[in-house]
């Protein structure tokens, strides 16, 4: 999304991301990746759970994470091994959700081009 941030802003939109990471870890990630948008914290994935978009990382995948040096409980400050489903919500200025892309397959991410197309459709 960083790659199309200027185009998102050109539509008069604001990009924010919601993450279960602790604020300090989000800040570090934002700086490391030079993100030009805000990362909001969802402690323990509680908001994702309210939306029905939280899932538990299964044991085999936990091993993959550990083998890659990813300590999810440490990053999230929560021992639950849960993550939000990747998704994108386009919300207008009145708070009405105009477009949603969510996939329970965590390997499928919303494409930035779809976000731009949905923004253009609102104009």
Q: Any idea of the CATH topology?
A: Glutaredoxin
Return the string of H and E elements: HEHEHEHHEEEH
Major β-sheet, in short?
2 strands, parallel
Radius of gyration: 15 Å
CATH homologous superfamily (4th level) name? Glutaredoxin
Number of helices: 6
Q: Give the N-to-C terminal Cα separation.
A: 20 Å
Strand order of the largest sheet: 1-2
Q: Give the rounded overall mean pLDDT.
A: 92
Poorly predicted runs are none
Q: Which second-level CATH architecture applies? A: 3-Layer(aba) Sandwich
Annotation, overall tally of beta strands: 6
| Total discrete domains | 1
Provide structural commentary.
The chain is α+β, with helices and mostly antiparallel strands and 123 residues long. The protein has one domain (2-122): 3-Layer(aba) Sandwich (Glutaredoxin). It is 37% helix and 20% strand. It contains 6 helices and 6 strands. The strands form 3 sheets. A two-stranded parallel ribbon has the order 1-2. Strands 3-4 form a two-stranded antiparallel ribbon. It has a two-stranded antiparallel sheet with strand order 5-6. Strand 1 (16-19), helix 2 (23-32) and strand 2 form a beta-alpha-beta unit. The protein is globular. The two termini are 20 Å apart.
